[in-house]
Specification:
Elements: H1 6-18, H2 20-26, E1 28-32, H3 34-39, E2 45-51, H4 52-57, E3 65-67, H5 69-75, E4 84-89, H6 95-98, E5 103-107, H7 113-126, E6 130-134, H8 143-149, E7 158-161, H9 164-173, E8 177-187, E9 197-201, H10 210-213, E10 218-221, H11 233-242
Parallel strand pairs: 2-3, 5-6, 5-9, 6-7, 8-9, 8-10
Antiparallel strand pairs: 1-4, 2-4
Helix pairs in contact: 1-2, 7-8, 7-11
């Protein structure tokens, strides 16, 4: 037996899609689509919503709320809803819990949702211990980011920090060598990477702030031919994290 959520709850769920403030206040976020909903851990799931069409195609589907297709479309953040959506509890990590790893990404002012989502997905594939983001990075719980992570948001530890330079200092104290991706850096193909390492990646347009880059042990750059000066932030993350491993 399914309940109907009512107009108020429908609006509350929709606000989780649209507003950072609603997500921060509630501690919840929205995951949509059959594949991503399967990726969520049972303890992370708060409520499940399905459409009548989804129920017809999946008669044994378990959910808290059943909506008409028109109502579900109002909840959905996609043009072609799959008919299943969950509200999930946000992850809570502490800096102390993330120390002791071997590979880190430090992100400063990343603004593009697709970039952040792809970086998280790459981080999982490369075995990154944790991703640390400046407070002015795009919200990782926005629907566009969560979709782009392809489920990595549930498996890769991450944290927002006020100052990436301070986070870099904590890692250095823990024995991690911090590299700053920088146009004035040493070409990385001539360097042997440290066993425990972290990579700083800056804003898509402006790069790293000088104060942030100065907190690294070394500045490095990706060797490039032709007139190209820089690469997409997500591409840089992939090249840095796989450096020295393949």
């Amino acid at each position: 037996m399914y309940d109907h959520p009512g107009i108020k709850k429908i609006r509350e769920v929709r606000s989780l899609c649209d507003r950072v403030s609603a997500r921060r206040k509630s501690g919840l976020f929205v995951i949509e689509g059959e594949r991503l909903c399967r990726e969520a851990l049972p303890e992370d799931i708060c409520e499940t919503y399905i459409s009548e069409s989804y129920k017809a195609a999946h008669p044994k589907a378990k959910a808290d709320y059943l909506l008409t297709d028109a109502e579900f479309a109002k909840l959905s953040d996609t043009k072609h809803p799959q008919g299943i959506l969950i509200t999930a509890r946000q992850k809570r990590y502490r800096m102390e819990d993330l120390l002791g790893g071997e590979l880190y990404l430090l992100l400063e002012t990343i603004q593009d949702p697709g970039n952040l989502g792809t970086i998280m997905r790459t981080a999982e594939a490369a075995g990154v211990s944790a991703v640390m983001m400046s407070a002015d990075c795009v919200d990782i719980y926005s629907p566009k980011v969560t979709r782009a992570t392809m489920g990595a948001i549930f498996r890769v530890p991450f944290i927002y920090v006020e100052d990436i330079a301070v986070a870099a200092g904590r890692l250095r104290e823990d024995g991690v060598t911090v590299y700053a991706g920088h146009l004035d850096g040493t070409p990385m193909d001539g360097i042997r990477p440290a066993e425990r390492r972290a990579f700083m990646i800056g804003n898509e347009g402006a790069g790293l702030k000088e104060k942030t880059a100065a907190a690294a042990d070394r500045r490095i750059r990706i060797p490039m031919k032709g007139a190209t000066e820089s690469l997409n932030a997500a591409v840089c993350a992939a090249l840095f994290t796989y450096w020295g491993t393949i």
